[in-house]
Amino acid sequence: MVETTLEEAYGKLLLSDLFTHIWFGDWEAYETAIEQIPEELVMELPFTDHYIREETALWRDNYFQIPGEYFIPPYLSSYFGKDEKEQERARQEVLCLVGDYDKFGFYYPLEQNEFPDHFGSVTAFITAALKSEIKAHEEGDAELASQLHNFRHHIYTTYLQKGIASMMTQCENRVSDPFFKAFLTFYQQSMEDIAK
């Protein structure tokens, strides 16, 4: 595993934070974050050209909140099988994830009134780990920075990676909105890089 430079960590933090805003539909925070990113970098984000606040908000609700024709579950536990054994495994994974959050003192999902295995919650956790990692780097605590880097990688490979892959399979025939079509593909690619 390659250590992240401080500059790379700041770039990853910007992206991860932006992704969290999208998952939770916090469009005001999304717009503020976009304004803080240099224009040449914003142009590299494939979904920003398709952002129209009202339409994007409506499609987010249709895809990730309102059960119906377009619904795509935004919870990692939704992508386990439906039999009793698979559901028990899903419960255990969520409990382990909550345990990892607790070790870190991360209570964001509770503050958002959201489940801990929501894609936004896990992305917010990776964002929080990145912030702490950057602070450790700035304070010269290389050991803590390395531990946080490894923890961030662990959260991605243990929980998020397979959930994203399963979700993307469900998205293939359901997502038609250009913002979310571009966002979800970019999210999948970027989260792997952010976790490195």
Structure description:
This protein is mainly α and 196 residues long. It has one domain (6-195): TorD-like (Orthogonal Bundle), CATH 1.10.3480.10. Helices cover 70% and strands 0% of the residues. It contains nine helices and no strands. The chain has helices at 6-24, 27-36, 39-42, 53-64, 84-104, 108-111, 119-138, 142-171, 178-195. Helix 1 (6-24) runs antiparallel to helix 7 (119-138), helix 1 (6-24) runs antiparallel to helix 9 and helix 8 (142-171) packs antiparallel against helix 9. The termini are close together. The model has no long low-confidence stretch (mean pLDDT 86).
Radius of gyration: 17 Å
Approximate strand percentage: under 5%
Shape: globular
CATH topology, what is it called? TorD-like
SSE order: HHHHHHHHH
- Class of secondary structure makeup: mainly alpha
Tally of structural domains: 1
Biggest sheet record = none
* Tally of individual helices: 9
Taking pLDDT < 50 over at least 5 consecutive residues as the criterion, the unreliable ranges are none
Give the N-terminus to C-terminus distance in angstroms. Answer: 7 Å
Average the pLDDT over all residues and give the rounded result.
86
Helix content: over 70%
Number of strands: 0
CATH superfamily: TorD-like
CATH architecture: Orthogonal Bundle
Q: Please identify the top-level CATH class.
A: Mainly Alpha
